[in-house]
Design goal:
The chain is built from 2 helices and 2 strands. By secondary structure, the protein is mostly helical.
Length: 170
Amino acid sequence: MYLAAGILVINATFWIEAVAFLLMLAVLARFVYPRISAAAEARQQQITEQLRKAEESRRASEERLGQAEARLNEARTQAAEVIEGAGRSAEQLRADLKARAEEDARRVTENARKDIEAERQKAMDSIRGEVADLVVSATEKVVGERLDVGSHHSLIDRAIAEVGARDGRS
C-alpha cells in the first residue's frame, strides 16, 4: 500500500496481507480463542470457588469463635460460682471451727472448774480431819482425860461446823 500524492493505492500485496490477516484471525478464533476463553472461564470458576470456600471458612470460624466465647463465658460463670461457693464453704468452716473451739474451751473450763471444786473438797476434808485431830488433842490436853466416843463426836462436829461457818464467811 502506497500513498501517492495523498491517494491510497491498493495493490496485490495489500490483498494478500488482508487475506492472510483474515485467515490468521479465523484460525485464532477457531482454535486459540476457545482455549483462552476456556482457561479464563476455568480460572474464573476456580477463583469463585475459592471465594466461596473462603466465605464458608470465615462463617465457620465466626461460628466457632462464638461457641468458644460462649464456653469461655460459661467457664467464667462457673469459676465465679465455684469461688463464691468456696467463700461460703470457708465462712461456714470458720464458723464451725469457732463454735467447736468455743465448745472445747467451755468444756475445758467446766472440767477445770469441776477439778478445782473436787480438789477444794479434798482439801476441806483433809483440813477437817486434821482439825478434828487437833481438836481432840487440844481437848485432851485441856480436859486432861480421854473423852468417850459420844462426846468426842459431838466436839468434832461442833468444830467442823465452826470451821465451815468461818470458811463460808471468808
